[in-house]
Amino acid sequence: MTPIRSRVVAADIWSQIIPRRARSFVDACRNTCAALAVAASVLCGLACHRTGATTGATEPGSTTAPRPAVIGAQEGERRFLRGGAAPLLLKIDPVNTGSRRMVLGSSDLPPGDVIGAHRHLQEDEIIIILRGTAQVRLGTQDYVASAGGTVFIPQGTCVTLTNIGTDTLTNVFIFSSPGFEEVLRSVSTKPGEAPKLLTPAQRAAAFHRGHAEASPNDC
To answer: What is the value of pTM for the model shown?
Structure first.
């Protein structure tokens, strides 16, 4: 074969090999890009799920879209604890304002009455004393909180609160996420309803649904 003929044959061979390799490379790039797109979509979905950023996402128990609200001192979902002796107002929660991130309400506790030992397993709580004087046990430490005082109860902390004054103890409570408001609904009544008499098992089940423990053994 002459040198010129050899160069022509070689050129023909490479003209067939290079396009095939180029096509294989392009196909491989396309497959890789498709796989990366799927992976990115999955990761984005997981991130949105964890942060609640998915469009239209709602928390369990939420019945309305979150909306701004100005709520008066005597406004809210009125309920009664302890056979009607302890009024309760649920103001901000998934049901009343569509809140997905916090719960706020107020309650009155008669002189000498006690909110028994319990702990919140998933939420921090803040109690602001508006009127009266309370003895608050946090873990094994006792404190006194009077009007204007604030009590911070981190997640997992045992808490007991007693009205040690001669006046009604009025307070505002705030939870860092929804849950315990359903316990309050379970153990309270609406205006005009007969008092609830829960068995210890029913009470424990209600607290469990609200991410809490009633009367823990180590409190």
So the answer is: 0.70
Q: Counting Cβ atoms within 10 Å, is residue 154 exposed (0-12), middle (13-18) or buried (19+)?
A: middle
Q: Strand order in 169-175's β-sheet?
A: 77-81, 86-92, 103-109, 169-175, 125-131, 150-153
Phi, psi at 158, each rounded to 5°: -70, 135
Question: Do the Cβ atoms of 109 and 168 come closer than 8 Å?
Answer: yes
- Tell me the per-residue pLDDT of 31-66, one tens digit each, with 9 for 90 and over: 544 443 434 443 334 333 333 333 333 344 456 789
Question: What DSSP state is assigned to residue 57?
Answer: -
Contacts of residue 114, Cβ cutoff 8 Å, sequence gap at least 6: 160, 161, 162, 163
Question: Taking the C-alpha atoms of 75, 100, 192 and 127 in order, what is their torsion angle to the nearest 10 degrees?
Answer: -70
Rounded distance, CA 18 to CA 37, Å?
28
Instruction: Please determine, for residue 76, whether its predicted confidence score (pLDDT) is greater than 90.
Output: yes
Distance CA 158, CA 139 (A): 5
